């Protein structure tokens, strides 16, 4: 399986992905990897309905994503993977999926988190996961859409004194 | 009329010449076929054009179709048409005295259909005519000779038209040459050897031959004959003899020697084809009180699934049970294909009919009460594809409690299944005579579908007919067999799908029967759309969850109005699901505006979007935001809003097609 793009975004598949990323990156599948969404029928249905025309979209659990990645029958897939948070991104990479850069769109603010950029909020678990990803030599590319200028999340985290 | 022109253009394209024809020829052609029979019209046009081609062979640029030269059956068309004066009158107004059809590259050849000739008729005529001329025949004799030839050919071709369609699926994986050879075999075996062969012979045999030939061509070593195989075939002298004949036919056709081992494999194939009489589907009769309750349920289901094994019986309240019983018995008889009938009823006396019906019709009948449309749908689905027997369908349907199960129930069921099932992985077995040819192809086909639906916990295992039973026992040690397919139905209590059904696009359905694949996604999307869930409150909820600086309660009202405005101005209906996504996107745009972190888009795209039809509608809608919130969105944000609307429109357009 040739994973073309890995993106962290709390809202997973939405306007920015359908109108921009799905068009600029050549993929034949969108895989939404989230244990939470896989068990939430309403959200799952809404997300699948937001898929761009012509690209099949599935919601799978992290475990299944890793299993499929190592199964040669799925070699024909060239997917874009969307995850909700850094922790899931780390689980996927730990499971053996090769990627050299992770795109981060938006991570919603909540009581446990602090804002590090205009759209990205992190908590302790997120920071740990980002640190792990950074240590693997994976680039943390902050862009909402492909045309935005890329910012390095590691720099923002450092400036905030979080790492 | 337009159709006729189109068909003629097709011919003109084929011969690269103009076709000139008079009003009378057009009328005769149109009159020569019964209304709506396009295949026949096409055949007739090809016939007269071939004839015209023959008569005008000296003319390089044009062929002329003359009424006087038409075959008698087409000439009759004019008088047929003349008997319908009004039709003729209408037509005459449309017609010019002479029509010239030119080859037209743009119109081109439409998609090849089953009525399309597989080769260029005109080239054959040209070649054959040249040949006959060399033999010293005069033009008239040549023409006569070739016309008879063409006539015969077209006739046989179009007679087969119907059969061709069902074999379409097959021709995707097997060369047409092999299919033709197999058909020829079927005919020869039936006529000369008096050996009965059914239609699925074509599927099984052509697949077998095709893989055998591929094997030879690739230079792979030939299969050895095992002792098992020989002893097994020994019990079937008739099939061995027929296989010998089949071998000769293949040898004569391809002109290479066929090893003896193949004869044994083919004999086994023949035995299995014979021992597997194709039983029909389980029939379904829906009977319910009310003037149209049953028939409307059946109507819905047949529209959704295009099935032919289902009938309805309406029982108005004043009808006596006796009459109803007779009526239902008639429906049961009509729908039975030898495999029993499932009777789905609503209530009361109807649920007590089983035994009386069996007595009356001698057909096995099982009754389930409290019928719902969902149950009829499930029954049709279960009986449509797989040769499941009445008892299995009955048992499974009794457990059926609707598609819209709550998640807890599904999880409960999953737990049950896990408890019941062992740790063995799931497998589908694919059976063919060698376990290496057809079965391998089936495996490829199913694997593709499994991958497409991201099902990774089912393995497809190929099995040879010769040692089938031993192999299955062995497989069962490591796997839990969930379904079977191939040339013969094994003695395992799992759903089985025949080769024909599988090749006729039944693969998807087959897999969906075994695994709950996301086929329900469409149903679910629809159910969600009509549920009470997708409301302002839900949007508010999501807004609160994903955004930081905007006030969901206040903003959702503004954005709901925004959606309504766009919907009204663009005159296209927005689904509730899309409304939610648009509200979320708009809230994001507002928040980005407030935090001065708007998205970017390049100049070229920005210039392009201004020409979009949706652009002025979005800018007008944005006025609402300016008026109520005193916020003006940037041009690149406008670009993304237009893009989102455009993508949604594109999607709903493709879905409609």
TrEMBL record, chain A:
<keyword id="KW-0813">Transport</keyword>
<keyword id="KW-0418">Kinase</keyword>
<dbReference type="GO" id="GO:0008982">
    <property type="term" value="F:protein-N(PI)-phosphohistidine-sugar phosphotransferase activity"/>
</dbReference>
<keyword id="KW-0598">Phosphotransferase system</keyword>
<keyword id="KW-0808">Transferase</keyword>
<dbReference type="GO" id="GO:0009401">
    <property type="term" value="P:phosphoenolpyruvate-dependent sugar phosphotransferase system"/>
</dbReference>
<dbReference type="Pfam" id="PF03830">
    <property type="entry name" value="PTSIIB_sorb"/>
</dbReference>
<dbReference type="InterPro" id="IPR036667">
    <property type="entry name" value="PTS_IIB_sorbose-sp_sf"/>
</dbReference>
<dbReference type="InterPro" id="IPR004720">
    <property type="entry name" value="PTS_IIB_sorbose-sp"/>
</dbReference>
<protein>
    <submittedName>
        <fullName>PTS friuctose transporter subunit IIB</fullName>
    </submittedName>
</protein>
<keyword id="KW-0963">Cytoplasm</keyword>
<keyword id="KW-0762">Sugar transport</keyword>
<dbReference type="GO" id="GO:0016301">
    <property type="term" value="F:kinase activity"/>
</dbReference>
<feature type="domain" description="PTS EIIB type-4">
    <location>
        <begin position="1"/>
        <end position="163"/>
    </location>
</feature>
<dbReference type="GO" id="GO:0005737">
    <property type="term" value="C:cytoplasm"/>
</dbReference>
């Amino acid at each position: 399986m040739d994973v073309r793009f890995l993106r962290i975004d709390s809202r997973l598949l939405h306007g920015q992905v359908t109108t921009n990323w799905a068009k600029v990156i050549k993929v034949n599948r969108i895989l939404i990897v989230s244990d939470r969404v896989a068990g939430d029928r309403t959200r799952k249905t809404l997300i699948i309905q937001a898929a761009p025309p012509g690209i099949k979209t599935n919601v799978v659990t992290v475990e299944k994503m890793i299993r499929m990645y190592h199964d040669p029958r799925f070699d024909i897939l060239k997917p874009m993977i969307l995850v909700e948070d850094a922790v899931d991104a780390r689980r996927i990479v730990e499971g053996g999926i090769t990627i050299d850069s992770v795109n981060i769109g938006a991570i919603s603010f909540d009581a446990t988190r602090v804002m590090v950029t205009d759209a990205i909020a992190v908590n302790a678990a997120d920071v740990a996961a980002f640190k792990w990803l950074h240590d693997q030599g994976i680039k943390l590319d902050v862009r909402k859409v492909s045309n935005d200028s890329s910012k390095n999340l590691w720099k923002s985290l450092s400036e905030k004194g979080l790492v | 009329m337009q159709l006729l022109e189109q068909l003629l253009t097709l011919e003109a394209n084929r011969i690269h010449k103009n076709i000139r024809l008079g009003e009378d020829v057009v009328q005769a052609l149109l009159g020569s076929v019964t209304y709506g029979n396009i295949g026949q019209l096409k055949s007739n046009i090809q016939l007269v054009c071939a004839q015209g081609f023959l008569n005008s062979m000296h003319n390089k640029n044009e062929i002329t179709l003359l009424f006087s030269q038409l075959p008698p059956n087409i000439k009759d068309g004019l008088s047929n048409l003349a008997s319908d004066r009004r039709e003729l009158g209408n037509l005459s107004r449309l017609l010019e005295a002479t029509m010239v059809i030119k080859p037209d590259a743009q119109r081109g050849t439409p998609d090849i259909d089953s009525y399309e000739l597989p080769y260029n008729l005109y080239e054959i005529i040209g070649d054959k005519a040249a040949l006959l001329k060399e033999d010293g025949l005069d033009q008239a004799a040549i023409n006569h000779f070739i016309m008879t030839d063409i006539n015969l050919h077209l006739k046989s071709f179009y007679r087969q038209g119907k059969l061709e369609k069902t074999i379409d699926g097959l021709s995707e994986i097997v060369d047409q040459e092999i299919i033709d050879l197999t058909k020829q075999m079927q005919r020869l075996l039936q006529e000369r050897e008096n050996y009965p062969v059914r239609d699925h012979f074509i599927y099984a045999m052509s697949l077998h031959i095709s893989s055998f030939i591929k094997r030879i061509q690739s230079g792979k070593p030939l299969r050895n004959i095992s002792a098992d195989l020989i002893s097994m075939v020994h019990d079937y002298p008739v099939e061995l003899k027929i296989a010998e004949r089949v071998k000769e036919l293949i040898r004569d056709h391809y002109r290479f020697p066929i090893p003896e081992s193949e004869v044994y494999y083919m004999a086994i194939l023949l035995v299995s084809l014979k021992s597997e009489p194709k039983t029909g589907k389980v029939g379904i009769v829906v009977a319910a009180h009310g003037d149209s309750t049953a028939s409307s349920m059946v109507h819905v289901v047949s529209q959704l699934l295009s099935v032919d094994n289902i009938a309805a019986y309406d029982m108005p309240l004043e009808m006596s049970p006796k009459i109803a019983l007779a009526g239902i018995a008639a429906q049961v008889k009509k729908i039975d294909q030898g495999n029993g009938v499932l009777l789905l009823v609503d209530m009361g006396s109807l649920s007590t009919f089983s035994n009386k019906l069996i007595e009356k019709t001698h057909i096995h009948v099982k009754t389930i009460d409290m019928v719902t449309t969902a149950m009829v749908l499930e029954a049709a689905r279960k009986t449509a594809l797989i040769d499941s027997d009445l008892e299995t369908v009955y048992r499974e349907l009794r457990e059926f409690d609707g598609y819209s199960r709550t998640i807890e129930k599904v999880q409960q069921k999953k737990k049950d299944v896990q408890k019941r099932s062992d740790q063995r992985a799931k497998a589908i077995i694919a059976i063919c005579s060698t376990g290496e040819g057809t079965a391998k192809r089936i495996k490829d086909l199913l694997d593709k579908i499994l991958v497409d639906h991201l099902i990774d916990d089912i393995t497809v295992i190929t099995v040879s007919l010769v040692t089938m039973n031993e192999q299955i026992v062995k497989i069962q040690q490591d796997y839990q067999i969930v379904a079977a397919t191939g040339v013969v139905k094994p003695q395992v209590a799992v759903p089985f799908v025949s080769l024909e059904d599988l090749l006729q696009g039944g693969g998807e359905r087959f897999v969906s029967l075994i695994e709950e694949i996301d086929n329900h996604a469409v149903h679910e999307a629809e159910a969600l759309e009509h549920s009470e869930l997708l409301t302002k409150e839900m949007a508010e909820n999501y807004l609160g969850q994903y955004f930081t600086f905007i006030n969901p309660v206040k903003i959702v009202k503004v954005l709901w109005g925004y959606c309504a405005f766009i919907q009204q101005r663009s005159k296209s209906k927005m689904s509730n699901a899309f409304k939610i996504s648009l509200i979320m996107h708009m809230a994001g745009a507002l928040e980005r505006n407030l935090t001065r972190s708007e998205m970017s888009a390049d100049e070229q795209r920005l210039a392009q979007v201004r020409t979009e039809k949706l652009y002025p509608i979005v800018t007008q809608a944005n006025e609402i935001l300016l008026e109520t919130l005193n916020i003006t969105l940037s041009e690149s944000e406008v670009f993304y809003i237009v893009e989102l609307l455009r993508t949604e429109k594109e999607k709903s357009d493709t879905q409609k097609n």
